[in-house]
Please model this.
Amino acid sequence: MNKRTIITALLAIAALSPTIAQDAKDKADGNPGWLWEISGNGLQQKSYLFGTCHGGGHSFTHEDVFGFNGVDKALSNVNTVYFETDLTVSNRLAAKEMSIAEYLGCPNDATENDLMPEGTTYESLFDSVAQYQEVHQFLTRKMGDTEYWKKTPLYWFNHLSGYNLAKGYYGIQAVEGVLSKEAVKRGIEIGQLETTEQHAQWFGRPRTQRQRPVISLKFEATMLYIGIHNDDDQVPEPVRQITTAYLKNDTCSVHNVLKSLKKNSTLNKDALPTSAMNNAWFPVIEQNIAKGACMVAVGARHLLGDDSIINLLRRKGYTVEAVR
Model:
């Protein structure tokens, strides 16, 4: 099996969405970067929108995040930082003592499409006994299901990629981790756009609501194995490209990689509900920027496309400008 094919599918499932495609009119800002200033429409104070990167195999440092022009100043001017969900340092540390399922309180949402075919075992899907044992240990201990083998590897991969929390178990620090630590240090309040349970539901949707990609169970098992070993020596090349572009504050290059993956992918276009998430978060964002100066830090893909948070704010009359 071609490794490029495997890793392209891995990234596509984990990072693709219908709002990633960006038309020429969306590029009117040129290459604006990840930090945006929100003002106007009756706001008494400016707030900020910051596109983050959840990891992708790169462990972000303080120098990485605060190397972006304006981030340090923006954080100094706000009272609250809002993340997609609860990413405070204390809760992440507490979660390490629990399974991911326990921490998120996720129900068993498997449907008939998620069940393993009769007669197929997990052992038969991996290239070695050692690989199988690693997956077995992770799913029983961290995913908290001793009967994980009843469900397909794709079921677990979809949940794993949705949580992002799992990256913390392997020492990979996302941008959110850097920001939350600095916010705690500065005495800045941390908020969330939705609860961890609500956040998990976006990715644990019954598979009857979306088509399964046409891939083999062995292919699914390979993606799952890579997903739970998201470290530097196994990072897919497209993910490397995105991380490199992200660190350079290069929104256009990130867009181009994601757009290319979407064009070449056979996966269902609703692999991730980015547009629906943006619309669900928007009232919460609007309510909080009206209260006072805050920073809204969400995954960079939520800043791209027709239904991006940037465009939603602009359509409601807010001025949203890139901090160069």
About this structure: The chain is about 45% helix and 10% strand. Confidence is low (pLDDT under 50) at residues 1-28, 205-212, 265-271. Strands lie at 35-39, 47-52, 80-83, 189-192, 294-299, 319-322.
